[in-house]
């Protein structure tokens, strides 16, 4: 397609699909760059719930430049303990958290903390329309036209698909999800609990593992615990058709002690549970004409990278800078992608290694993990930990 010029004048319209971290960040940055964004969100209202997020790297730097850090909490509790719980329910000291991005700043927070701060920054400036999403997308040299599922039609200069790993924008413009989704044989479930769990102190991270299974519980100051569970299955697509309650009870049967049964009960009472297979999204190009994908829609790196939220913010910020600096949209989107790709490729690769930190994928991994914990304070243990997780 020939390069459409970036429109000038006050009314450069951007349609952003999805009001997650990537969509909100992109809307904020485009608004500050003089665009007129409209956010379309499929959910009937703002999302709640989520999981813990380790926030550092390029996203942290972007949040600092955007002036968002002041409003972002740091839920790290000084002296927080990493604990491990074995299959018999015994609690012992655990592995240290992986290296803190080579000494660069980091915060522990919740996904909802990030969404809240971005929402507060954006909602007075940008319209967010809930309860609808794209049904058809067409584009020509002058504009992109989106028919929404509620029958309304929107025209824009730029369409941003920030609608997550199962992106409708990607399916409509780039092709079916199967072409781009690379599945792990892992399932993840995550939620915020309603109540504290017995026996955990503020700041504790408790990890329960068995070959091909792990459960992570994080406690924070002034907040109920958040948890995510991971397990391997040869048929993740079939697995996620079950209810989370049934699937998790089957996968975590055999964990003794009080904590895991209490966790499963607490998850039943949670307001919402993320329940999905673990996959990466890999596309050769993140834009086509006037349509661009940002965040998990473009490059989902999995929770194992620990960088998905940050790259959504960094990607949105850079996009706004590029469409400001370049006269032609294709040049702007090309340069945006050139600058962003090395970091995304690095984090996607890193995720493959880090899966072993989050879950011992087999018996051997479980033995290696136990050895690492037992020898954590010896030079050999430190070497092992560094090899597996960069700790
Ligand atoms: C358990 C877990 C732990 C994680 N830990 C970390 C971590 O430590 N650090 C980190 O940086 N990242 C972490 N991540 C990853 C990070 O949370 C994601 O990469 C990030 O939230 C993706 O944001 P997004 O806005 O791109 O997509 P999403 O959060 O998926 O948002 C997409 C939005 O689009 C909406 N939408 C979907 N379809 C449509 C449609 N058709 N029309 C309109 N709207 C639509 C959705 O309702 C949603 O609001 C973790 C993820 C998980 C699951």
Task: Name some characteristics of this structure.
single chain; 391 residues; alpha/beta; FAD/NAD(P)-binding domain; D-Amino Acid Oxidase, Chain A, domain 2; 2 domains; seven-stranded mixed β-sheet; six-stranded mixed β-sheet; 12 helices; 18 strands; 35% helix; globular; binds flavin-adenine dinucleotide
Please outline the helices and strands.
Elements: E1 13-17, H1 21-32, E2 36-41, E3 52-56, H2 57-65, E4 82-85, E5 91-93, E6 106-110, H3 111-122, E7 127-130, E8 134-139, E9 144-148, E10 153-156, E11 158-161, H4 168-173, E12 181-192, E13 205-210, E14 213-220, E15 223-232, H5 236-239, H6 244-251, H7 259-269, E16 273-281, E17 287-288, E18 291-293, H8 296-299, H9 308-325, H10 329-358, H11 363-374, H12 379-389
Parallel strand pairs: 1-2, 1-11, 2-7, 4-13, 11-18
Antiparallel strand pairs: 3-6, 4-5, 8-9, 9-10, 12-15, 12-16, 13-14, 14-15, 17-18
Helix pairs in contact: 1-3, 1-9, 2-9, 9-10, 11-12
Bound molecules: flavin-adenine dinucleotide (FAD).
């Amino acid at each position: 397609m020939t390069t459409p010029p970036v429109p000038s004048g006050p009314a450069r319209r951007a349609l952003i699909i999805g009001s997650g971290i990537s969509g909100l960040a992109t809307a904020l940055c485009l608004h500050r760059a003089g665009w007129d964004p409209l956010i379309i969100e499929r959910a009937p209202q703002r999302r709640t719930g989520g999981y813990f997020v380790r926030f550092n790297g390029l996203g942290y730097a972007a949040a600092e430049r955007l002036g968002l850090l002041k409003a972002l909490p740091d839920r790290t509790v000084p002296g927080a303990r990493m604990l491990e719980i074995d299959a018999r329910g015994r609690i012992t000291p655990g592995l240290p958290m992986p290296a803190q991005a080579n000494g660069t700043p980091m915060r522990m927070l919740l996904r909802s903390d990030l969404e809240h701060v971005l929402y507060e920054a954006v909602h007075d400036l940008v319209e967010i329309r809930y309860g609808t999403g794209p049904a058809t997308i067409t584009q020509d040299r002058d504009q992109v036209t989106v028919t929404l599922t509620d029958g309304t039609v929107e025209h824009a200069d730029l369409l941003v698909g920030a609608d997550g790993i199962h992106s409708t924008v990607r399916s409509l413009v780039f092709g079916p999800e199967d072409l781009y989704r690379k599945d792990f044989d892992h399932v993840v479930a995550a939620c915020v609990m309603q109540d504290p769990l017995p026996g955990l102190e503020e700041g504790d991270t408790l990890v329960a593992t068995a070959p091909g299974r792990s459960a992570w519980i994080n406690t924070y100051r002034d907040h109920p615990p958040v948890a995510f569970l991971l397990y391997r299955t040869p048929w993740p697509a079939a697995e996620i058709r079950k209810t989370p309650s049934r699937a998790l009870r089957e996968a975590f049967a055999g964990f003794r002690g009080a904590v895991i049964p209490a966790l499963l009960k607490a998850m039943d009472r949670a307001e919402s549970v993320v329940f999905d297979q673990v996959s990466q999204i890999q596309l050769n190009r993140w834009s086509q004409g006037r349509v661009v994908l940002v965040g998990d829609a473009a490059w989902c790196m999995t929770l194992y990278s620990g960088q998905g939220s940050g790259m959504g913010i960094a990607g949105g910020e850079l996009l706004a800078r590029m469409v400001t600096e370049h006269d032609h949209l294709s040049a702007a989107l090309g340069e945006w992608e050139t600058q962003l790709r090395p970091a995304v490729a690095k984090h996607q690769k890193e995720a493959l290694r880090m899966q072993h930190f989050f879950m011992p994928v087999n018996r051997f991994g479980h033995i290696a993990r136990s050895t690492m914990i037992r020898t954590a304070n010896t030079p050999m243990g430190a070497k092992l930990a560094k090899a597996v997780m960069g700790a």
